[in-house]
Amino acid sequence: MTAIESFDGIYLDLSKESGKCRFAETGFGWKPAGGGETFTLDRSNVGGAQWSRAAKGYEVRILHRNSGIIQLDGFQQADLERLTKVFKNWYSTVLENKEHALRGWNWGKADFSKAELTFNVQNKPALELPYSEIANTNLAGRNEVAIELSLPQDANDTGTAGQGGARGKGKKAGAGRDQLVEMRFYIPGTAAKKEKEAADGDEGGSDDAVEEQNAATLFYETLIEKAEIGEMAGDTIASFLDVLHLTPRGRFDIDMYEASFRLRGKTYDYKIQYDAIKKFMVLPKPDDMHCMLCIGLDPPLRQGQTRYPFVVMQFKKDEEVTIDLNIDESDLHSKYKDKLDAHYEEPLHHVVAKIFRGLGNKKISSPAKDFITLQGWP
């Protein structure tokens, strides 16, 4: 076997253009044919490999030990023998031959693996959904779970220099002409949930270790844990409970993190990156009792077929709050100097607006004090 095995016309993670893929004893690399940054993977990070039919011929799916699935599409049937030797001799990995389910059934079994959700029909995968591509999930009904997929902000906001790529976490599908944005699973009945803690030395307590739970709820909770969308990475910098929202309507708890914030309601949860915020506005209501904080988003929030380009919060003007931010003093001075304070004690809408401005690095617009409308309203 030669020291290097090369393959042309290979697409990395749904990339727009093909590139050249090279395998060596130390690992493999992929470079776009039109030029651009090279993607490489060390052999120590190869946790497994699968061979299957795909859109452009045959595909090799590499299971990264730490960060999900890497897809290489565009191989020919004749390449199987060479690739089998590559993975066996160089990476000590068996290239598993996977057949897809082609019956067209829309019912089957969902399996949660380390890096993706697999929907199997007669023990064959009908679809695979990487956790990194999942933006949010909600219980849409007693037996229904909705899954929202990540949306790139524009055509170039995906992967490697607009080519797609394994580094474009949550943005693989953005390289395609059409993109799936939501899926729904109907999951009836109940399922057994195993308790993590069992009584020490109590063999008779095995019956208590299994709990019957609504199957859709268990699916939802498992997906939140696997996709890491229930609790954001990092600590909560500030939280505000039971804040009234006019759009989308309801009361939500606001958890603010370093790069994103989360709205947690009784039915729906929303995870929003600060990069998606296009404008902030603080607007008084004519009743002189309330104030609204309006946040313009692109892409907008989705709830089924409904889009919400604005999040509108309503506060009482006279509602005061005292809060200490959960942030290290060193980070406060290095990252948020002149943007955030460690302690706030003032009206709630002022505090929320100032923290959004500091974390999101966005300007807040508000009416001028001396502005008078044509009708004479201040």
From TrEMBL:
Highest taxon of the lineage: Eukaryota
GO molecular function: DNA binding; histone binding; nucleosome binding
Domain FACT complex subunit SSRP1-like first PH: 235-364
Record localization: Nucleus; Chromosome
GO BP annotations listed: DNA repair; DNA replication
A family per Pfam: SSrecog
Record key words, sorted: Chromosome, DNA damage, DNA repair, DNA replication, Nucleus, Transcription, Transcription regulation
Region (Disordered), start-end ranges: 152-175
Keyword NAD: no
Domain SSRP1 dimerization residue range list: 104-190
Gene3D superfamilies named among the record's database cross-references: 2.30.29.150, Pleckstrin-homology domain (PH domain)/Phosphotyrosine-binding domain (PTB), Structure-specific recognition protein (SSRP1)
GO CC field: FACT complex
Residue ranges of domain FACT complex subunit SSRP1/POB3 N-terminal PH in the record: 6-97
Family: Belongs to the SSRP1 family.
Function per UniProt: Component of the FACT complex, a general chromatin factor that acts to reorganize nucleosomes. The FACT complex is involved in multiple processes that require DNA as a template such as mRNA elongation, DNA replication and DNA repair. During transcription elongation the FACT complex acts as a histone chaperone that both destabilizes and restores nucleosomal structure.
Protein name: FACT complex subunit POB3
Organism: Ophiocordyceps camponoti-rufipedis
